[in-house]
Amino acid sequence: MEIVSTLLIPFLLALFLSINMGASGTSTSFAAAYGADILKKKWIPILFGIMVIAGAFIGGKEVSLTLGEGILAPELFTPLYTSIILFTITISLFAANLMGVPQSTSQTTVLAIAGGAAALGELEVNTLFFEIIPMWFILPILAFTITYIVSKWIFPHIKTKSLEGDFEHIRSYQGLKIALIFASLYVAFSVGANNVANAAGPIASLFYNEFGIANYNGWSISMLALMIMAPFFGFGSYLLGFKVTRSAGKEIVDITPFYATLTSVIVASLLLYASIVKGVPTSLVQLNGACFIALSMTKTGKKSTFSNKTVKKFLTVWMVAPAFAFLLTYGLTLIANLPL
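Given the sequence above, the corresponding C-alpha cells read:
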C-alpha cells in the first residue's frame, strides 16, 4: 500500500500531462477539418482518441524507450525525480498555454529529463547531442523546405480551383474533403506514435525501477504505460480540445483546405519517421510551424513573415521553454539532493 501511495503523485502528474497534450494535439490534428465544417464536434475527440491509441500501440515503443532509458538510466527514475520531471514539463506547458503559444512537449520533456540527469551526474550525452538534438534541426528544416518548394514552384503551375478554394467551398470537392479527413487522422496517429511517450516513458521506467519487472502478462512495461496514457489524450481532447480547435480552425484565413491537407501529410510523415525509424521525440508544433512559415514566405515574403509579432513570439517561446525546463529540473533535483 505504501508503494502505491508513493507512485500516486508521479502517476497523476503523467495523466494530467496526457490530458493537456491531448487538448493541444487535437487542435493540430483536426483544426482544419473542423474549420471546414466537414466533421461534427462530437466526432473529433472520438476519432482523435482512437487514432492516438492506435499510433501509441503500433509506433510508440521506441520513443518511450528513448525517454525512459536513453537520457537517464531507468533505475534513477525514482518517484521523487520522476515527479520533479513531470512537474517541470507540466509547468512549462501551462506557461506556454497562458501565452497562447503551442509548445513542444517533446523538447520540454527531453530537456527536463536531461536537467535531472545532469544534476545527478548521469546524463547520457551521446543520445542527447548526437541522436535527439540533431533531429530537432533536421526535421523542421525538411518540413520547411518541402513545403516551400511545393508551394513556391510546383502548385502555382497547376491551374485548378481545388488548390485555392477556401473552407466555405470545400464541399464542392468531395475528394479534397475526404483527403482532409484522412490527413487529420494521419496526424492524430503520428501524435500517438510520438507524443504519448512524453508521459509514458518516465512512468514505464519508474514502474520498472519500483517493481523490478520488465513485462506484465506478456506486455512490456513500456507498452503497458503507453496504453494507459493514450486514452487520456482522448479524454483531454473531449475536455479541453474543442476550445483550442475552434480557435485554430475557425480563424485560419490565409491557408486553403488543400494546403492544410498538404502540411498535415508532411508533418505527420516526418513525425512518424522520427518515431518508428529513429525513436526520437520530436516537436509536432514546430514541424507544423515550419510549414506555415514556409507558406507565409511564399505568399507575403521573408521580411513580412519574420517581422510578424506572432512568429517572433512563437520562435522565442520555442527556444526559451525547453531551456527553462532544463534549468528548473536541474535546480529542483539539486535541492532534492541537499542533506537534511
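The chain has a mean pLDDT of 81. Try to locate this feature in the C-alpha cell string yourself.
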